[in-house]
């Protein structure tokens, strides 16, 4: 994964493994997490460099500033299977129309404690060159985007912690989208709240809620300026069964509203999940 996927701090995860910042079984987020940059080849082999590692939010060690950079020369020169929007799949092929090359990502985060409050701040930037013929309505082969996020933890006492966070993402995508239109710009934000009775210690119970909103600006095939919108809600409960063993359950609802004139229809989904997470 690129540094923008590893270093980010947005809303706390309401449901482990089904959040807007981690891979999800929810179909509309299946390609990659909702708050990640769309034009960043996380599944491509690349160069990732960090100024520090092994830092954990809320810990008393490893605080301060961390910087990271990633570079992918050619998104078609590996065995990734990202499909056509963007990517090549199959491995070691020539760079195809819509494929990404010269992908650059930079990120910074800062972790600090102020008494009973832990703070994590994040900023990220990405830039990628789109190969081949451009889609109608797309004028610049170089696509870029930026993000800002923050997460806070208030240590109530006796191990109880209240976590709150969120972030904003703004990206120029400039490629074909579902429905015969061109997806030009994407703006999204997330916000979430989580309460843990005893942090990550065995016996700790957690409850969290998360909300996500996305607007995709479309051009051609529909009126210029038309938008697809997605609202995504999750509610989850966790129980720390033992050290490294986390059980969880949750529900989620999504509402995808397509712009008028596209060839695809609106989609509403509800899912439930029960799981067990192991950390070694």
Provide structural commentary.
About 5% of the residues have low confidence. This protein is mainly beta and 280 residues long. It is globular, with a radius of gyration of 20 Å. An eleven-stranded antiparallel beta sheet has the order 1-2-3-4-5-6-7-8-9-10-11, with no helix packed on it. It starts with a helix and ends with a strand. A hairpin with a 2-residue loop joins β3 and β4. 1% of the residues lie in helices and 53% in strands. It has a single domain, classed as Porin, CATH 2.40.160.
Average of the residue pLDDT scores: 81
Text of the CATH class: Mainly Beta
- The helix/strand order is HEEEEEEEEEEE
* Structure classification: mainly beta
Widest sheet: strand ordering: 1-2-3-4-5-6-7-8-9-10-11
Instruction: Give the CATH architecture.
Output: Beta Barrel
Largest sheet: 11 strands, antiparallel
Q: Strand percentage, roughly?
A: over 45%
Could you tell me the CATH topology label.
Porin
Helix content: under 10%
* Rg on CA atoms, Å: 20 Å
The number of helical elements comes to 1
Unreliable runs: 81-87, 89-95
Net shape = globular
């Amino acid at each position: 994964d690129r540094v923008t996927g590893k270093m980010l701090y947005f809303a706390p995860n309401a449901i482990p493994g089904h959040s807007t910042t981690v891979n999800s079984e929810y179909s509309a987020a299946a390609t990659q997490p909702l708050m990640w940059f769309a034009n960043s080849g996380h599944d491509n082999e690349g160069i990732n460099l960090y100024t520090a590692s092994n830092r954990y939010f809320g810990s008393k060690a490893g605080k301060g500033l961390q910087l990271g950079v990633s570079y992918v020369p050619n998104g078609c020169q590996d065995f990734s299977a990202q499909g056509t929007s963007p990517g090549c799949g199959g491995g070691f092929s020539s760079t195809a129309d819509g494929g990404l090359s010269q992908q650059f990502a930079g990120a910074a985060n800062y972790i600090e404690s102020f008494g009973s409050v832990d703070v994590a701040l994040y900023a990220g930037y990405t830039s990628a060159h789109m190969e081949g013929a451009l889609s109608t309505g797309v004028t610049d082969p170089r696509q870029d985007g930026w993000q800002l996020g923050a997460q806070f933890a208030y240590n109530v006492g006796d191990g109880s912690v209240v976590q709150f966070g969120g972030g904003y993402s703004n990206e120029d995508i400039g490629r074909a989208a579902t429905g015969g239109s061109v997806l030009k710009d994407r703006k999204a934000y997330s916000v979430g709240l989580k309460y843990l009775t005893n942090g990550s210690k065995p016996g700790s119970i957690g409850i969290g809620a998360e909300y996500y909103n996305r607007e995709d600006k479309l051009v051609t095939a529909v009126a210029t300026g038309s938008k697809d919108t997605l609202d995504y809600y999750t509610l989850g409960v966790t129980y720390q069964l033992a050290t490294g063993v986390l059980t969880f359950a949750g529900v989620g609802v999504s509402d995808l509203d397509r712009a008028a004139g596209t060839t695809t229809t609106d989609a509403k989904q509800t899912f439930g999940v029960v799981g067990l997470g192991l950390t070694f």
